Amino acid sequence: MNIPLRGAAPILLVLLVIAVLAAAAPGAAAKYELTYSSFFPPSHVQSKLAEAWCAEVNERTDGRVKVYFYPGQTLTKAAQCYDGVVTGRSDIGMSCLLYTRGRFPLMDFINLPFGNPSGQFATAVINEVFDTFKPEELSDTKVLYLHAHGPGFIHTVDQPVRSLEDMQGMKIRCPGSVADTVKKLGAAPVTMPMPEVYQALKKGVVQGAVYPMETNKGWKMGEVIDYTIANYKTAYSVGFFVVMNKDKWQSLPEDVRSTIETINAQWAAKHGKAWDTSDFEGFRYSLSQGNSVIGLSEEESKRWQQAVQPVLEAYTERTQEKGLPGDEVLEYLEKRLNDFREGSFSSSYVDEER
Questions:
Q1: What's the whole-model pTM score?
Q2: If we measure between CA atoms, which residue out of 152, 158, 293 comes closest to residue 225?
Q3: What are the backbone angles phi and psi of residue 146, rounded to the nearest 5°?
Q4: Which of 31, 193, 198, 269 has the greatest number of CB atoms lying within 10 Å of its CB?
């Protein structure tokens, strides 16, 4: 059967022109697919935040960018995550800076026993230091943002610790350069990434471990420890990177990059707040398992603080030998700590919502 096209032809012509113009518009029909590797297990709050970042990028770019998230070391191992991004094995990666010991000497300040008061403080300061000092050590990737956990404490199995003498000779798991702090406290450091710690504690390979309170729930460590020594004066943090392959970043259109940068600034603050919220959950979970939290006396706490002072001094010496402004970074850190103690601390990297 023949259908007259006299009326339909103009409509078809208009549709054809629209389709051609749409295809010719820069980036209009482009789709960018990215991979994102992380060592955090899928159920961890930091994995959930990463997944939320992926969804936010997809939504705010109107579906032009799709990010596939691979948690639990399914794409790259924790210690290989950064190099995996550099070489393009993954487009984006999140892991610990100190899992590659010695590679990020200036940013190692965040792992020092400086008396870390909170995850929001540590997250703000690590981003501020990066923005201010612009360390070359991260220049082989595009840094999306950084974040850092709350106060890092010592947690032990069977043996309570109330003094430096109690620490002598204990095998304590720690990440990377935190080993220096563990040594100064008299224990024997055993370095290993977080995914290996549960079994190491359960099997008695180590007698304790250092990590923030959130780990007792986030990594289920509360099931295998008995005591937490909550000494805030020597509390450290661990810095986490969220970085992207530089070539892949440059391949994105300028408007997409601008959108992602806006999201990054918001998400850094979300991570800091999440660390603090999950610390409280970790406290509750650990107590629900029958564990005890030990607070040191003021006198004993000062002894610990004096014992680890050489760790901060060694950081200054190491960085100066490399021509890096480690002394300036510690001065900046102390200034921000004073702001926090005086109640005047504020930062664009802190989520002010309550």
A1: 0.89
A2: 158
A3: -125, 160
A4: 269
